Amino acid sequence: MNTQPSISAPSPVVPENGAFRFLGLSTLIHAAAQATNGAYGLVEHPSVPPGFASPYHVHHREDEAFYVIEGELAVILNGQWKHFGPGAYVFGPRGIPHGFCPVGEKPVRMLIAFTPAGKMEGFFRETAVPNGPKMTPEMFAKYEMKYVGPPLVV
User: Fold this and answer.
1) Can you say whether residue 13 is alpha, beta or left, with left for phi > 0 and alpha for psi between -120 and 50 degrees?
2) What is the pLDDT of residue 132?
3) I want to staple 40 with a disulfide (CB 3.0 to 4.6 A). Which of 12, 20, 61, 115 is the partner?
4) Number of H helices, E strands in the chain
5) Intervals of the chain under pLDDT 70
6) Quick one: pLDDT at residue 133?
7) Which element (helix H / strand E) includes 79?
8) Neighbours of 63 (CB within 10 A)
9) What's the DSSP call for residue 115?
10) Nearest 5°: CA angle at 14, between 13 and 17?
11) Confidence (pTM)
12) Using CA atoms, how far apart are residues 85 and 78, in angstroms rounded to an integer?
């Protein structure tokens, strides 16, 4: 039985409002909830520089998947570090602590998909510098996530 609502007409999916800065990274939202009927969101980070690391966190609502286009990415998933190169797809199920950072001297270009869509786009927009507040455990909780700890680096 398919419980996914159908989209009545093809929805063009184009980057929304150009790039913005999230955690200091150039960020493009390629597909948001309104374009996918809430099924998924797709974000691109065109250049994640060496030395960057995401906060260690948990999504209570979304599964998150990473696709590495260029560079090498280290992902910590439930306490286990693994390295991934171009063409790698990494699935991070909801409820599992995770984070990521580039490995080596080259930046990483990557896509991140979230399913279902909706909350993450709001989190990105609200916490984008210079428009939004700092990332705090309360801000994570507002978007049904948990801040587990500071960024971890390999």
Assistant:
1) beta
2) 60
3) 115
4) 3, 11
5) 1-18, 129-133
6) 67
7) none
8) 16
9) E
10) 135
11) 0.85
12) 20
Within 10 A of 64 (CB to CB), how many other CB atoms are there?
A: 22
Distance CA 5, CA 34 (A): 12
User: Coil, strand, or helix at residue 9?
Assistant: coil
Indicate the Cα dihedral angle 94, 60, 78, 137, nearest 10°: 150
Omega before 133 within 30 of 0, i.e. cis: no
**Integer Cα distance of 50 and 73 in angstroms:** 10
Order of strands across the sheet that contains 89-92:
20-22, 25-31, 41-48, 108-115, 63-70, 89-92
Burial annotation 77-87 (CB, 10 A radius, 16+ → b, else e): beeeeeebeee
Q: Residue length, the chain?
A: 154
**Superfamily assignment of 20-144 in CATH?**
Jelly Rolls (2.60.120.10)
